Every structure is written in C-alpha cells, then in structure tokens.
Amino acid sequence: MSIRFEKVDFEYSPNTPFAFKALTDIDLELSKDKMTAIIGATGSGKSTLVQHLNALLLPTGGKVIVDEHTIEAGKKFVKTKDLRHKVGLVFQFSEYQLFEETIIKDVSFGPKNFGISEAEAIEKAKRALKTVGLDESYYERSPLELSGGQKRRVAIAGILAMGPDILVLDEPAAGLDPQGAEQMMTLFRKLNKEKGITVLVVTHNMEHVLKYCDEVVVLDHGKLLMHTDMTTFFENEKYMEEANINPPSIIRFKAMLRQRGLDIPSDILSIEDLARYLSRRKGK
Amino acid sequence: MKNVTLGRYIPLDSFFHKLDPRSKICAMFAILIAIFIPAGWIGYAIIGTVIVSCIFIAKLQLDFIIKAMKPMLMMMIFLFVINLLVVKTGDLLFTIGPLTVYTDALTQTAYIAVRLVLMIMLTTLLTATTKPMDMTLGIEDLLAPLEKLKVPTHDIAMMISLALRFIPTLIDEADRILKAQSSRGVDFENGKFGEKITAIVSLIVPMFVSCFQRADDLADAMEARGYVVGAKRVRYKTLKFHGGDYVVLIVSNLILVGMILIWIFVK
Ligand SMILES: Nc1ncnc2c1ncn2[C@@H]1O[C@H](COP(=O)(O)OP(=O)(O)O)[C@@H](O)[C@H]1O
Ligand SMILES: [Mg+2]
Fold first, then answer.
1. DSSP-assigned letters across all residues of B81-94
2. pTM of the entire structure?
3. What is the ipTM of this complex?
C-alpha cells in the first residue's frame, strides 16, 4: 500500500497558447500513516501536486499510484469515485464550498454521494462535527451564518465524514487566527495519531511543520527539491537555505546558542523542552 | 473551464495588437454588416480571405480560432436540423421516410453556417488582440456622443469593464468549487437526473454567495479609493489614432462598399 509519484509531469491547458508546465518529473514516495508537510513558494506547484492524489488533475506524463489505484498519463482512469472516497481533499478556502441549508445536511452530503444511507450519513456527520469541535447546537444552523473559521471547520467535517484513509489539506490554516490555526493542526495530528489517517498538509507555516509533521516535501518551480524527515530538515541549515525558508524561531535560537558554544541536542524542538533542558543542565 | 478560448485576450506583439481599439471596433462593425449583405459566395470568399489573412497578421494560430468555435457547434447542428425540417423550396434532393430534403435547405444552412463562422472569427480577432481595458476605453469613446442625450456612458463603460475584469476570476472560482464538490463525490459528468440537479445546486449556491461577497468588497474598495458614481473623471490613458488605424478603417469600409456593389450589380 503506497502513495507514489513516478516521473509525473503536469501541464495546464496543453496545446494552447496558455500551456504551462506546473510539475516536472516528480518522483516521490509518501509514507503512509505519517503526517507530511508540503512546502514551497507560492506558485511552486503544491496545489497542483495534491490534486493528483484524487484524480482531479490527471498527469500529462508518468503515473500516480495510490494503493490499488494507478493513474497513468494518457490512460483513462475510471475508478474516480473509489479513489475520491479513499482520499479526502480539503481545498484552500474550503469555506466557499458550503451550500446546504443546514450544517448537518452539508456535512452528510459527502457520505451520501458515496452511496451511504441517509441515517448512516447523518451519524457520520454528527461524529465528524464532534471531531472538529462543533456541538449539537450547530446542526440545524445555516452554514452561511458562521464565522470564517467555523465555516472551515464545517468544510473539513464534510470531508472527514466521508471516512478517508488519506486526508489532504491545502493550506488549511491560511487566514485563520493563530489560535484557530493551532487548533486545526492539533486536530489533524490527532486524527493521524489516533485514527491512523495519513495526513498531507500544504503549509507556509514552519512552526507548524516543526511542531506537527513527521516529514517534509519541498517543491520549487514545479520540481521536487527534497523529501526528508522533519528533524533532518531542520537540523541542516543548508537544506533550509536551499529551500529558501526562514527557520522557525526555536531553530534560530538553537543556532545562536551553538554560535556561543552551547550545543543543544537535535531532538529538542520546542521552547518548553529547551527550557527544561537548560534548567536541568544548570542544575548539574 | 480554462480551455475556453472564446473572447480571450492573447498577449502578442502584432500590427493588430497595436491598433487603436476604436478603429478595430468600427472596422469590425463594418465587416459584420458586410457579412450580412447577401453578396453570395463570391462575397463570402472575399471576406473569408481577408479575415484569415488578418488572423495571420495578428500572429494568432488558426487552431486557437477553431477552438473558439467549439461552443457554437451545437447551435449550428440545431440550426441545420431546423432548416431541414422547415425549408421546403428548391429542388427535391432526397427523402428518408417522412423527411424530405430540398436543395434550398442545404444552401440556406450553409449560408448561415458560413456567416456564423465568419462572425466568430471576426469577433475573436477583435477580442484576442484587444486588452479588455482598452476595449472599454474604446467603447466609452465611441459612445461619447450619446452623453449629450444624458446616456450615462461612463457608467456603462465602467460596468462593462468590471464585468470583463471578473470573467477570469469567476471562471477560476467555478473551477475551484467544481473541484471541491467533485472531491466530495459529486459527479458532474454522469449521474441520474436527480443527481445532476444536486450537482448543479452544489455549484451555483457557492458561486452566488461568493459573487455577492465579491461585489460588496469591490464596492467598498472603490469607495475607499474615492470613486463616486456619476462624478467627472479624467483618464490615465488616452487613445490615439496612428497610420495603421486609418488603413484598417479604409480597408474595412471598402469591403463593405464592395459587398453592396456586388449585391446590387451581380445579383
Ligand atoms: N488552472 C490553471 N491554469 C493554468 N495555470 C495554472 C492553473 N492553476 C495553477 N496554475 C499555475 O501553475 C503553477 C503552480 O500553481 P499551484 O499548484 O497553484 O501553486 P501553489 O499551490 O504552490 O501556490 C503556478 O505558476 C500557477 O500560475
Ligand atoms: Mg496553492
């Protein structure tokens, strides 16, 4: 069982004056049951890449393999529905996809599309809403009268209710207040740890990568720049420089300490751990 | 969605791209009228040759123009069928069961088809070589005489330019919502009638919501920058005629006169 890109190319509007090559020769194997961050500058192809995972975009070269599904360039892919049931994709600004009169209806819309009975879909919707932290009082309200952050929770619940094995989130925290963003990321981490859902998250926030993710994929101008585990990524300043990334504050802090002759072990990655480590050192 | 080529501006550098939008709009109207003058096949051959050469001069690819016609294909087929059923003059060509086909039905359909094709080529030539903003400036200038009749020409031009400005945005938006709903298992291509309806609702409601939102934001943004409806405004960019503009105007009007002459004397 795997998620693999093999020599994937993707071109928007091929054979027109607007043709644009958004992905070039992507070879990538994503680890299951992990939480992986996809990072890169705006326009580097992150959204394009993730849309290949549930066949919203079909590769124009190479192939994408998701478990038993193989999407090959030039071949017709027919099991779209099965694949979309397996891979839940939450779009950037997902709050704009809500359309039903009540929240419960909107969240149960996804499961119903996959042939699940009405009653069961409502059950799933209730569970999903609970997971994202919206209680019963919300069920009968209109999704349009919620705040932006709440709308996004409803949209995410709409995908969770489908029961995906792989959850893909395109900039889920963009535009949320810092606290809301943290809650969101905590939720995904919990889903990953407790339910064993493979999570892929596109993000610009390095603090989030550091705090919540296991692996890092870096894209640059449609090419795969690197794919490593999180600790290796943040240990090597060279990597971050190459990826043109401003390191998180704790990493910068550690670098400064190192310059002054104080080496901090690489597994210390939060302010709390660092404080504890330093006080223990002092005690010795 | 993105593959819609009808009405899109293609940023190239050609004789036509540099022309004044006013001369292009006027020339287009002259040729458009010429197309509707029944000058027979000779006339269409002349207009067709002129338009195709213009497309080459504008450095546009012919297959781009052909793509622009795709949305019209259904309409042409529809017209063709209607004509076959309705037109019963000319010689009897053949009968299939209860259906009788006359020569006039074929020639009339062919005429309409040729006219449509020419019209699409012509308008695509205009829209592909003129930036939407220049187009509205041109329209506003051409409408200027109507201001004397208290027609709010500037407001009209502003509405047109806002509409044009938002077409690509709305296409992007529709594309995104379409994909988001597809991820939730909506099948926009197949599916039974009932499912089709739900599919469309799931696209239209979010589109409406975001359109109103955008309109609100835009109005605020315009007011914040001092836009007042009906106020007198000066222009950042002024249009100017050059040599090429006169050539285009003269050639297009000559074609129009030529068609009228052919119509009167040849027929
Ligand atoms: N529908 C489209 N048609 C043409 N080009 C596109 C389309 N969507 C994205 N692109 C282009 O592809 C590149 C990658 O886009 P995207 O995957 O959205 O980047 P990211 O999500 O990393 O910001 C960008 O340069 C963008 O302009
Ligand atoms: Mg993106």
1. HHHHHH---S-EEE
2. 0.80
3. 0.89
